[in-house]
Amino acid sequence: MRMLVVILLAGAAGMMPALAFAQTKTFSGRAAYYDKNYKGKTASGQIYDGAKFTAAHKTLPFGTRLRVTDARTGRSVVVVVNDRGPFTPGRVIDLSLAAATSLGMIARGVIPVNVEHITE
């Protein structure tokens, strides 16, 4: 009963995405990347820099560090969430050009990934 009250209060306070993420440290899905010509501000207010290892996620807090692993090759990168998205159905994360290049996904486009939250 006590846990139900905490969950209901967290939902009422708008904290459900953070609460749900605290219990789910990993997720999988499909990743895409920002086009090489993309310019503009991210949802966090930062100017997008394709040379930095950053990512967009729909609900994770800005500043969250994630290890993104290519499910096919096993290559991985560490990125910091600084934008919102992706808004294309079936995708779980958008990666900066630097992160995508490091993963070797440029020629393949959208790839399957495993993502884990990094706490330090």
Keywords:
alpha/beta; 120 residues; Barwin-like endoglucanases; globular
For the residues shown, what is the average pLDDT? Answer: 85
Helix content: 10-25%
Could you give the order of the helices and strands?
A: HHEEEEEHE
Strand percentage lies at 25-35%
- The span between the termini is 32 Å
The H-level CATH homologous superfamily, spelled out, is RlpA-like domain
Q: How would you characterize the largest beta sheet? A: 6 strands, mixed, barrel
Regarding quaternary structure, what we see is single chain
Number of helices: 3
The strand order across the widest sheet is 1-5-2-4-3-6
Total beta strand runs = 6
CATH architecture: Beta Barrel
The CATH class is Mainly Beta
| Count of structural domains | 1
Gyration radius, in Å:
15 Å
Envelope shape: globular
Instruction: State the secondary-structure class.
Output: alpha/beta
Low-confidence blocks of residues: 1-16, 18-23
Q: Kindly report the CATH topology.
A: Barwin-like endoglucanases
List the SSEs and their pairings.
Blueprint: H1 2-12, H2 16-23, E1 26-33, E2 54-56, E3 65-70, E4 76-83, E5 91-95, H3 97-103, E6 111-117
Parallel strand pairs: 1-5, 2-4
Antiparallel strand pairs: 1-6, 2-5, 3-4, 3-6
